[in-house]
Amino acid sequence: MRRNYFISDIHLGINSKEREAKFLKFLSLLLPKDNLFILGDLFEYWLEYRLVIPKNGLKILMKLKELKDKGIEIYFLFGNHDYGLKNFLSKEFDFIIGEQYLDLNIEGKRVYIAHGDFIDNSFLTKVSQLMTKFKINQFLYSLIHPDIGLSFAHFFINSTRMCGRDLTLKEAFYKFAENKIMKENYDVVILGHIHMPTLVKIGKGYYLNTGDWLINYTYGFIEGDNIELKKF
Q1: 188 burial type by CB count under 10 A (0-12 exposed, 13-18 middle, 19+ buried)
Q2: Could you read off the pLDDT of 116-160 as tens digits, one per residue?
Q3: Average pLDDT rounded to a whole number, residues 21-43
Q4: For 51-74, what is the mean pLDDT?
Q5: Are 131 and 141 in contact (CB under 8 A)?
Q6: Nearby residues of 46 by Cβ (< 8 Å), 6 or more positions away
Q7: What percent of the chain has pLDDT over 70?
Q8: What are 196's strand-pairing partners?
Q9: Residues 6 or more apart whose Cβ sits within 8 Å of residue 219
Q10: How many whole angstroms separate alpha carbon 114 and alpha carbon 116?
Q11: d(CA 70, CA 228)
Q12: Under a CB-based contact definition with an 8 Å cutoff, are residues 197 and 121 in contact?
């Protein structure tokens, strides 16, 4: 029996020194043979440069590499803020990468795991996907000096967040999970993106939203038959 941790939407890179320290403490909870699932938006914005790594991500990435070397399996799904990590993680780290979702057997349960931004059709999410998901846009943006490009990206994306979350997304995510459980026979559906921590029973299954680390500091946890939403 392995312990399974699920976390998303840490958004390192904005007011992140204190949150980075807290996240490092969280990562220190993990023991060899645990599983860590990062459901996207680990960073506020990550742009792939050939020779440059944003310094605000270095401590976290080194800690994750340390955990991996200790025998902790790390799964990474991309959110709408961090598609730029794709090549870097595949070349430099031995993470298990999910493009849009993972369909896994965890502790005898069929589990669907995704960031969930594809459920969100809002204008602001589409803009952030346009900036981060498509290689041609990543390349063009990478031609800008990192100090300018990353600063502007952080300012723009953080400004869009000030508009707040559309509460109708909570219902859309619930309906998505309900469909997966009731029609596709998943036992657990785990999503992120909307920053609304949720654990609710649907039929014989569970919908878990991991919340965020901007306000809530929440994460999901599965061990055996135990399914929890925890606060750090």
Answers
A1: buried
A2: 988 987 656 555 555 556 565 555 556 665 655 555 555 556 655
A3: 95
A4: 84
A5: yes
A6: 54, 57, 81, 82, 84, 85, 88, 132
A7: 70
A8: none
A9: 5, 6, 7, 26, 210, 211, 229, 230, 232
A10: 5
A11: 25
A12: no
Instruction: Give, in order, the Cα–Cα distances in Å from 133 to each of 27, 78, 162.
Output: 27, 9, 22
Type of residue found at 183? K
User: What would the two tokens of residue 11 be?
Assistant: 């958004």
The predicted structure's pLDDT at residue 51: 58
Task: Give residue 208's identity as a one-letter amino acid code.
Answer: L
Give the residue among 124, 20, 34, 123 at the shortest CA–CA distance from 75. Answer: 34
Which amino acid is present at 54? P
Bigger pLDDT: 88 vs 62 = 62
Let me know how long the chain is.
232
Structure tokens at 29: 């909870």
